[in-house]
What we know:
The complex is a heterodimer. By secondary structure, chain A is an alpha+beta fold. Helix content of chain A is about 30%, strand content about 40%.
Amino acid sequence: MPTKKSSPEYSQVLDRVQQNMDRFLSSAHVDAVYGAPIAHEETIIIPTAEVLSFAGFGVGGGYGNGPVNPDDPEGVVPEGEGFGGGGGGRVLSRPVAVIIAAPEGVRVEPVVDVTKIGLAALTAAGFMFGMWMRMARPRG
Amino acid sequence: MESAAKQNDWVSVETSAGKSIQAGGATITPFATSLRIGPPNLPFGMVWNRPTSILIQSVDGQEEVRQVPDITRQVLWGLLGMTLVMAALMWVINRKNSQ
């Protein structure tokens, strides 16, 4: 039985996947993290962000044949094939700082994500409390 | 766009400069670092872009590089370090008390 992985359709699908991966990986450039400058009177503001993106693709194919139909006088073996694929990804972005260029000079103002820090602090406190409770428990 | 890269087959770190921006009497050139993970024969990839610094060139020719600080990340690393130190201290104290 010849494998259908060598068929042109399968190669096309794989080529398409590779093209998409190459295009995705080429998204790593400066414009992804520095936003368009915003002018306000004599001040120019440039937002900056950290961008994390990931993607994955998968393809698969199958080929098979079935039993010969006894009513078919020619005795043709029924066969079929199919290909399928899919992909997914996610882009996470978080503001890091704002660059402010004013007539009196250029300054970089950090952006602090208080919610994220608060959640991390609560998690850390919960972990330490749990550990302390576990250690304070008398051993049997 | 200029760039400097370190890479092997499937991991690469690249620092690149963006287009210069004229702002007041200064020219600002942004720099960003990207980490790319893309195994050659696997249909999976990850790209992490982050701003690193800006180069400020004033009209009189002075140049200054200013870092773009990520305070949130620094605080998160600090919290993680503090948690690990506290956990280790608690473990040591508990061990001493139980002996």
